[in-house]
Amino acid sequence: MGCVGSSQSKVDGALKKIRKPKPWKHPQPITKTQLMQLRDEFWDTSPHYGGRKEIWDALRAAAEADDLSLAQAIVDSAGVIVQSSDLTVCYDERGAKYELPKYVLSEPTNLIGDN
Q1: pLDDT band at residue 114 under the 50/70/90 scheme
Q2: What is the domain class of 6-110 according to CATH?
Q3: Are 23 and 105 in contact (CB under 8 A)?
Q4: How many Å apart are CA 92 and CA 76, to the nearest integer?
Q5: Does 60 score more than 80 pLDDT?
Q6: Hey, where are the domains in the chain?
Q7: What is the pTM of this model?
Q8: Computed from CA positions of residues 28, 41, 23, 109, in that sequence, does the dihedral angle turn out positive or negative?
């Protein structure tokens, strides 16, 4: 009954609250410019991974939001079902899965300056 992730969208009767991803490390030191290029490439190709473009747009807006409450409002209003509270795994109302890499959600611990 319901979509694949419907039972996972609630925790104690409330919607799952999103949080910042845990600290992570890129395989090699990366500059802010390289990180932005990786993010742009992901978002440019994300609709090709399946799902609906408007959900991808909402996930991008949430990932780029400066405030967690704004990001929460974006995913809630788009009907995104959050499986992983750090937004790495989400579903839409139709059950389509959306996976976000950590590099679009936060900066790595080994980010270096551009020179």
Answers
A1: confident
A2: mainly alpha
A3: no
A4: 11
A5: yes
A6: 6-110
A7: 0.83
A8: positive
Distance CA 102, CA 39 (A): 10
Per-residue DSSP letter, 94: T
Instruction: Choose among 7, 4, 3, 9: nearest CA to 82.
Output: 9
Please give, one letter per residue, the 3-state secondary structure of 21-79: CCCCCCCCCEEHHHHHHHHHHHHHHHHHHCCCHHHHHHHHHHHHCCCHHHHHHHHHHHC
Task: Tell me the C-alpha distance between 57 and 79, whole Å.
Answer: 12
Q: What type of residue is 42?
A: F
Q: Which two tokens stand for residue 62?
A: 């949430």
What are the pLDDT digits (tens) for 26-42? 999 999 999 999 999 99
Query: In whole angstroms, how far apart are CA 110 and each of 5, 47, 85, 97, 103?
Result: 34, 29, 23, 29, 12
DSSP 3-state assignment of 11? strand
Helix (H) or strand (E) holding 112: strand 111-112
| Two tokens, residue 35 | 């990180």
pLDDT at 9 over 60: no
